[in-house]
Amino acid sequence: MKKLIMCLVVLLAMAGTATAYQAILYDADGNAVASNPIYMEPGDSVVLSYYASSILSSEYNEFFEYTVEEISVRAGSPAEAVPGDITIDFNTAYNPDGFIPGGSEYMDDGVIIVTMDADAPVGARYYIEIGAGGGVVEFQTASRTIEAIPEFPTIALPVAAIIGLAFFIQRRKQE
Fold first, then answer.
1. How far from chain centre, in Å, is Cα 121?
2. Largest CB tally within 10 Å, which of 31, 48, 138, 171?
3. Nearest residue to 55 via CA among 12, 98, 14, 26
4. Angle 140-142-146 from CA coordinates, rounded to 5°
5. What is the spatial distance between Cα 175 and Cα 169, in angstroms, rounded to a whole number?
6. How many Å apart are CA 82 and CA 105, to the nearest integer?
7. Which domains, ranges and CATH numbers included, belong to the chain?
8. Alpha-carbon span 43 to 115, nearest angstrom
9. CA nearest 106: which of 22, 18, 19?
10. How far is CA 143 from CA 2, 50, 84, 106, 129, in A?
C-alpha cells in the first residue's frame, strides 16, 4: 500500500512539473539569450528580457508577478562582496497577452533592469534568479551569473607600464 501511495505522489509531482512553463533570460531587445556570465563594471546596469515557453492556453490572460528569487555571492568572490551589491527592478508585471504567433511562447522585452552598485568589489561574482508566476500557475525561474570586471584604466595602465618598461630596457641595451 505504501508503494502505491508513493507511486501516486511521484506521478502527481511529475504531472505538476509537466505543466510548468520554461523561463529564459534574453538580451534587452529579446533577440538572443543573455550571456552567462554577464560581465558588468561596478556602477553599470544591464537590461534583460523575460522569455517563457510551454504556457498553457488557460494561463493566457493571467497576471504573473515578477519576483527576485535569489541574489547571492558566488564562492571565490572578495570578502567584501555582499548580495546588496546587485539590485533588480522590473518595468511592469508579467502578462502573457502578447504571445509569439503560433504558440505558447511569450517575450517580455526589456522588463528587467539589473544594476551593480558602484562600490561592488572588482572580481566579485553574483548569482541572480528571477521568476514569474501566479496563483494557479507553477512558478518558473531563470538565472544568470553576474561578474564585476575592472574598469578599463585598471587593466590598461599596468599593461602600458609593462610595455613602457620593456621598451625602456630594450633601449638601454642598444646604447
1. 19
2. 48
3. 98
4. 155
5. 10
6. 35
7. 22-170 (2.60.40)
8. 7
9. 22
10. 37, 11, 17, 17, 4
C-alpha cell, 156: 590598461
Give mean pLDDT, residues 105-126: 88
Which residues pair with residue 66 across a beta bridge?
A: 132
DSSP string, the chain: -HHHHHHHHHHHHHHHHHT--EEEEE-TTSSSBPPSSEEE-TT-EEEEEEEEES--GGGTT--BEEEEEEEEEPTTS-TT--GGGEEEEESS-B-TTSBPTTSS-EEEEEEEEEEE-TTPPTT-EEEEEEEEE-SSSPPEEEEEEEEE---HHHHHHHHHHHHHHHHHHHHHHH-
Amino acid at 129: E
pLDDT band at 162 (very low <50, low <70, confident <90, very high): confident
Q: What is the distance between the alpha carbons of residues 146 and 122, in angstroms, rounded to a whole number?
A: 12
Query: Is the preceding peptide bond at 37 cis, omega within 30 degrees of 0?
Result: yes
Contact 42, 116 (CB under 8 A): yes
CB 52 within 8 A of CB 23: yes
| Alpha-carbon gap, residue 44 to 149, rounded angstroms | 11
Residues in CB range of 91: below 8 A, 6 or more apart: 110, 111, 112, 113
